[in-house]
């Protein structure tokens, strides 16, 4: 007892900064210090007298666990040699108070105790010192797994470049990407220069400048977007992303980052834009042909009209030409934007109005045509119907509402009415000889009236005609 | 009365333009269907104005005819085409067209373009 200044040696055991267990060679627990009980969440009475693997049964969900065999082997080695044994890092899950198992990693040292004075070389007990390294182990493994997954999953080529020496540390993918043999480092000597030599001549200077720029400022972002040419002449598109960092040990600058092969993406982009250009070209060509065909139709009608002597027949041909032009004017409104299924009816009415002014010689007759249209998109077929109806209505007003010396205005209005309905109104202020069309028009312009009715029907619309100031026609149709 | 050269490879459209011009009281010195033919005819007959389509026969281009007519002979042109969007800004300034009209032509559109051009400038240098 003198040796311990009158203290119970158990005090040293409990005060130890490491978790310790004293076991017999057959793994029966003799003592457990405070640190051990705290680390494992047990009381001494849960442990003393039990065998180690009675107190800490293996996780049934981890059938591969070989902790018991390994500990037995280690203890046997301590007993046989009389020397301490360091056990390799090992997983042994610990059952907690609620019955669940917690994943735990252990580093264990087994040291011999020689307590039998009669047999001083005999190992009577073993001190089992356990260090819980779960946090470190899981953290390292997670980091490594994350890095492996990232590199593998995205086919990433990782690199670390010393911009001063030109030394390039890298993953094998980078060699493969640049057409070097990943198993033969002689072809590059771990230098960046052979890699830079494989950049497309037009991109190489820019790439060097970018690396120099990033090396100048710690933390600057690297942005490489370059073509590389392989020895067989194949071209690849790559992007490089990374940043410059200062190595905490050597204080030197490194550029770390990844290189990604984006050739497939670039080729798809190129194919897509080629296809789009081809489509635009085709639409332009079709557009041109349709315009030319419409010009041929009006040319035929014009020629026919010139060759016709009979004034009535000539007038009919002029009316036919005007109707063709009303359709043609719609076509000119198409291809103004991406959508060929519908047109902005307000823009179109502007063009139609110009066409009507010219074809009806409105200026020469002292008559005005005005239009007031809301910005409404209408599908192309309905726009054609609307167009023909407007052509007939305005032509009728010019024909019947005004005398040769009269001034006047024909107003075209298009606006949204209630409940998704659109209202078209063509009104004149004429009081000429044919203004009262209820009687005269039915006979004189049979085709015109039929066209108006037919077009209104194709719009699912209703027609209303009245005579207040002049003649007014309203067509109400659903949007 | 002005002397016109028609440069148009579609026969029907060409004779319609001719009829319209004759109806207005003008003269038509000929119809060319390619750019080289147009240049050759202009060099001989010296028209006052050329009516020119853009996409001509044998893959030739109205722009080339219009530029040569204006730069070499001082003959201005009125472009009548279904593909006006093909004309670049530099071509437009080299052609210095009196008007650019989109097919299909509206009735009276050509007459108005000729009258407007006639008022604002005297065509041809003679």
Describe the overall structure.
- The complex is a heterodimer of chains A (479) and B (126).
- Chain A has 479 residues and is of the alpha+beta class.
- Chain A folds into 3 domains: 2-139, PAS domain (Beta-Lactamase, 2-Layer Sandwich); 154-261, PAS domain (Beta-Lactamase), CATH 3.30.450; 339-478, 2-Layer Sandwich (Heat Shock Protein 90), CATH 3.30.565.10.
- Helices cover 44% and strands 25% of the residues of chain A.
- Chain A has helices at residues 10-15, 34-40, 44-47, 52-55, 67-81, 134-153, 172-177, 193-197, 201-216, 263-307, 311-333, 345-359, 362-365, 380-400, 437-444, 446-458, and strands spanning 19-23, 29-32, 85-91, 94-95, 101-102, 105-113, 125-132, 157-161, 168-170, 221-229, 235-246, 253-261, 342-344, 367-373, 377-379, 408-417, 421-428, 462-467, 471-478.
- Chain A has a 5-stranded antiparallel sheet with strand order 2-1-7-6-3.
- In chain A, α10 (263-307) runs antiparallel to α11 (311-333), α11 packs antiparallel against α12 and α12 runs parallel beside α14.
- The longest helix of chain A has 45 residues, at 263-307.
- Chain A is elongated and about 145 Å long.
- By secondary structure, chain B is α/β, with parallel strands linked by helices.
- Chain B has a single domain (3-120), classed as Rossmann fold.
- In chain B, α2 runs parallel beside α3 (62-73) and α3 packs across α4 (89-95).
- Helices cover 44% and strands 19% of the residues of chain B.
- Chain B contains 5 helices and 5 strands, in the order βαβαβαβαβα.
- Chain B has a 5-stranded parallel sheet, sandwiched between helices.
- The A-B interface holds A 284, 287-292, 294-300, 302-303, 306, 318, 321-322, 324-325, 328-329, 332, 354-355, 358-359, 361 and B 10, 12-13, 15-17, 19-20, 23, 55, 82-83, 85-86, 102-109, 112.
């Amino acid at each position: 007892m003198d040796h311990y200044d009158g203290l119970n040696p158990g005090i040293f055991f409990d005060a130890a900064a490491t978790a310790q267990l004293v076991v017999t060679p057959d793994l029966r627990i003799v003592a457990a210090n405070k640190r051990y009980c705290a680390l494992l969440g047990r009381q001494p009475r849960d442990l003393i007298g039990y065998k180690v693997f009675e107190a800490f049964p293996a996780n049934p969900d981890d059938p591969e666990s070989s902790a018991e065999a390994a500990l037995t082997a280690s203890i046997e080695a301590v007993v046989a040699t009389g020397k301490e044994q360091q056990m390799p890092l090992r997983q042994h899950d610990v059952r907690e108070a609620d019955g669940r198992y917690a994943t735990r990693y252990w580093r264990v040292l087994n040291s011999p105790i020689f307590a039998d004075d009669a047999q001083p070389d005999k190992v009577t007990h073993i001190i089992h010192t356990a260090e819980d390294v779960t946090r470190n182990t899981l953290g390292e493994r997670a980091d490594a797994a994350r890095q492996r997954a990232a590199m593998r999953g995205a086919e990433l080529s990782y690199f670390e470049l010393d911009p001063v020496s030109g030394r390039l540390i890298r993953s094998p993918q980078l060699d493969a990407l640049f057409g070097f043999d990943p198993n033969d480092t002689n072809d590059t000597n771990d230098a960046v220069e052979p890699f830079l030599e494989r950049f497309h001549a037009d991109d190489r200077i820019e790439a060097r400048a970018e690396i120099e720029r990033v090396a100048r400022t710690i933390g600057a972002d690297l942005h490489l977007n370059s073509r590389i040419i392989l020895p067989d002449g194949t071209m690849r598109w790559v992007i490089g992303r990374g940043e410059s960092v200062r190595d905490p040990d050597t204080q030197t600058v490194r550029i770390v980052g990844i290189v990604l092969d984006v050739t497939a993406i670039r080729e798809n982009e190129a194919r897509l834009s080629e296809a789009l250009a081809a489509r635009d070209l085709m639409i332009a060509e079709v557009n041109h042909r349709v315009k030319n065909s419409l010009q041929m139709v009006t040319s035929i009608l014009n020629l026919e009209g010139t060759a016709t002597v009979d004034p009535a027949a000539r007038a009919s041909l002029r009316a036919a030409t005007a109707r063709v032009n009303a359709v043609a004017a719609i076509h000119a409104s198409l291809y103004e934007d991406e959508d060929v299924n519908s047109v902005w009816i307000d823009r179109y009415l502007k063009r139609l109005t110009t066409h009507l002014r010219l074809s009806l010689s409105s200026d020469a007759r002292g008559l005005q045509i005005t239009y007031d249209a809301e910005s409404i998109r209408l599908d192309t077929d309905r726009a054609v119907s609307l167009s023909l109806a407007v052509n007939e209505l305005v032509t009728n007003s010019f024909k019947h509402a005004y005398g040769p010396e009269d001034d006047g205005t024909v107003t075209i209005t298009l606006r949204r009415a209630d409940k998704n309905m659109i209202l078209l109104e063509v009104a004149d202020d004429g009081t000429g000889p044919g203004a009262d069309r209820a009687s005269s028009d039915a006979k004189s312009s049979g085709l015109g009236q039929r066209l108006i009715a037919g077009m209104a029907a194709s719009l699912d619309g209703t027609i209303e005609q009245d005579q207040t100031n002049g003649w007014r026609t309203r067509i109400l149709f659903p949007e | 009365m002005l002397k016109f050269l028609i440069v148009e490879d579609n026969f029907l459209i060409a004779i319609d333009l001719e009829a319209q011009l004759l109806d207005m009281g003008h003269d038509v010195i000929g119809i060319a269907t390619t750019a080289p033919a147009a240049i050759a005819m202009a060099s001989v007959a010296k028209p006052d104005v050329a009516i020119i389509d853009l996409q001509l026969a044998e893959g030739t281009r109205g722009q080339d005819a219009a530029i040569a007519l204006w730069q070499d002979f001082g003959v201005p042109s009125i472009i009548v085409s279904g593909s006006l969007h093909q004309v670049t800004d530099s071509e437009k300034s080299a052609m210095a067209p009196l008007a650019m009209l989109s097919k299909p032509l509206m009735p009276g559109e050509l007459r108005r373009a000729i009258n407007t051009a006639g008022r604002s400038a005297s065509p041809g240098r003679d």
